[in-house]
């Protein structure tokens, strides 16, 4: 067995043991809680990592590479799921479904739905930071390693993210409170 393959096998085993669980959790939150697909994508990210190591590539920060790869794979899976969902409703029924949905949502606002709508307005980097900081409760040091930036940059981006979220939440909150007061 070649030295490159032996090294790649050892590094893959190490990465799997260290990072697989948190990679699955990351994918799980990105895929709107689809556990099976999250597990598949985490394994696919590991496979990409392994193949690149077999080609002789070395990674100073394997977790950052795995997170970025998983992020891209999740993005592709979400696009594919959206396209699939768009094909399931006949066009002539789409306006009826949309009108019914709008009327029911106006009378039954749900915190989780509002949160999802607001999160859709964040950029990919902001959403990734939000997931790592507020969903997974990662430290600045962990996030800096995963995103391959300094802890100070993470702190500054977190501060900016809070401002963006505040700007998004305030108008929505006033609408939400107005309907329930």
List keywords for this structure.
globular; mainly alpha; 8 helices; 0% strand; 181 residues
Give the helices and strands, then pairings.
Layout: H1 3-30, H2 35-54, H3 62-88, H4 91-107, H5 111-119, H6 124-135, H7 140-147, H8 151-180
Helix pairs in contact: 1-2, 1-3, 2-3, 6-8, 7-8
Strand content: under 5%
The beta-strand count equals 0
Q: What is the first-to-last residue Cα distance? A: 71 Å
Question: Helix count?
Answer: 8
Report the C-alpha radius of gyration, rounded.
20 Å
Helix/sheet category: mainly alpha
N-to-C series of helices and strands? HHHHHHHH
Give the helix proportion (percent range): over 70%
Shape: globular
Q: Kindly state the mean pLDDT as a whole number?
A: 78
- Tell me the major beta sheet: none
Taking pLDDT < 50 over at least 5 consecutive residues as the criterion, the unreliable ranges are: 91-95, 102-107
Structure, described:
With 181 residues, the protein is an all-alpha fold. 83% of the residues lie in helices and 0% in strands. The chain contains eight helices and no strands. The protein has helices spanning 3-30, 35-54, 62-88, 91-107, 111-119, 124-135, 140-147, 151-180. α6 crosses α8 (151-180) and α7 packs across α8. The longest helix is centred in the C-terminal third of the chain and has 30 residues, at 151-180. It is globular, with a radius of gyration of 20 Å. The chain starts with a helix and ends with a helix. The model is unreliable at 91-95 and 102-107 (pLDDT under 50).
């Amino acid at each position: 067995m070649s030295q490159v393959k032996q090294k790649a096998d050892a590094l893959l085993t190490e990465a799997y043991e260290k990072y697989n669980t948190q990679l699955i959790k990351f994918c799980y939150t990105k895929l709107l809680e689809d556990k099976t697909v999250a597990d598949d994508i985490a394994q696919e990210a590991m496979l990409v990592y392994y193949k690149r190591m077999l080609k002789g590539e070395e990674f100073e920060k394997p977790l950052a590479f795995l997170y970025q790869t998983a992020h891209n794979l999740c993005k592709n899976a979400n696009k594919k799921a959206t396209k699939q969902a768009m094909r399931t409703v006949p066009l002539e029924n789409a306006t009826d479904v949309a009108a019914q949905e709008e009327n029911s949502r106006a009378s039954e606002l749900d915190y989780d739905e509002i949160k999802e709508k607001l999160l859709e307005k964040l950029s990919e980097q902001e959403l990734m930071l939000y997931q790592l900081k507020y969903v997974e409760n990662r430290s600045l040091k962990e996030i800096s390693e995963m995103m391959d930036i300094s802890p100070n940059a993470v702190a500054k981006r977190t501060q900016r993210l809070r401002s963006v979220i505040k700007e998004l939440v305030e108008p929505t909150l006033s609408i939400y409170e107005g309907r329930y007061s």
